[in-house]
From TrEMBL:
Keyword Flavoprotein: no
Name of this chain's protein: Myosin-binding protein H
Keyword annotations of the record: Cell adhesion, Immunoglobulin domain, Muscle protein, Repeat, Thick filament
Residue span(s) of domain Fibronectin type-III: 234-329
Protein's GO biological process: cell adhesion
PANTHER family reported in the protein's UniProt record: MYOSIN-BINDING PROTEIN H, TITIN
UniProt lineage: Eukaryota, Metazoa, Chordata, Craniata, Vertebrata
The protein's role, per its UniProt record: Binds to myosin; probably involved in interaction with thick myofilaments in the A-band.
The keyword Repeat appears for this protein: yes
Amino acid sequence: MPGKPPPLKKSPVKKVVKKAPESAPEPEPAPVVEAPPAEPASLEAAPAEPAPAEAAPEGEHGDAPAMMTLTQTLGCFTASEWVVANEELTPGNRHCIKNLTTGDLLHVRVVAVNPGGRSEPGTLAEPVPIREVVDRPKIRMPRALRARYVKQVGEQINLVIPFLGKPKPVVSWLKDGQPLDPKRVNVRNSDKDSIMFIRTSQREDSGVYEMAVKVDSFEDKANLTLQIVELPGPPATAKLVDVWGFNAAVEWTPPKDNGNTQIAGYTIQKADRKTGEWFTVLENYHRLNATISDLIMGNSYNFRVFSQNQVGTSETGAVTKEAATILKTGIVYKPPEYKEHDFSEAPKFTTPLSDRATTVGYTTKLLCSVRGFPKPKIEWLKNQMVIGEDPKFRQISNQGICSLEIRKPCSFDGGVYTCRAKNTQGEAIVSCKLEVKPTIDRDKQPQ
């Protein structure tokens, strides 16, 4: 009987498993390591001598492989000793080689084994470079840094920006397209984040910072805008434009230094030259001119203007060179003009005359009331005849009350009496009937 083939050397540290094809005697092995192929090696490892084949038992075909063995070289590329990767024969045509060293070039060959012996080894044409699995780099910019990041001059800046990537990405920083100044900015990188540190920020640190992480040919970039602000300067100029009455008009120009941010408004103050104390007149004012009112007569005033931004109010203000003097001037009173009301009115009797009856020899009165402007002229008539200055009658007119007194009337004094009122606007009349009854003598009455 033929002798058994000598055993191959085994590596207890490295394990390899490959499945042998069931039908093909010479399968093509495929490495499982996920890495791009390296350049062909300059030196090839010498293949081991095949062992003498063993006779197949009766009833079995000697040309059908039953098992497959996967061997590999470890360490440097120039190694020439083949080491068994799997401790036991592996059925099937796939095997995963574990515990490899990153950076090595791995030669792989496969030997099929059956009861009849070993086959000639099948070797990969090129060595397989061992590399770590690559994860695309990704910068996870914090939400607070996605918008403009604002800090005041002198404050400390410590920004931590995490990222992903495997193997460890290469991190680089630029400011406005130029490399960072190591005297101003310190950058510390780890496997998971990058820290940008500025001990004492200045306005020249403002700008657009670009962070880039790179793994092999994959790269990710992100920008953050840093703005360093401070208090603004005072307005460039301030002048007194006009003074009238108790008012003064002031104008000014924007400051030359806005503190690296927009001007939010202005504060205007006034000071009486007698006291020299400053009082705020307007605050958060957005225009470049203002009118100051309610100034005191006889006083002189100076004005100053301060600038404001998001940091605060400027340390100094622009003061007007000229003073606004409120003069003591006499005030001429001009009475308001009113349209005179026309009170003219035609005569109108408010209380008319009433019919009356009287007895012969008993004095009686007729009464009525009238209004009108100008004061109407009153006339009395008897049976359409003007009474005039007849002493039998007494005519009285006082504040619109008109009366006619008939002294000791007789039967001839009966009739129709009329009162007539007349002025420039017109006239009015009112009448009544007077009946004079005779007296009854009881002695002469028939028995």
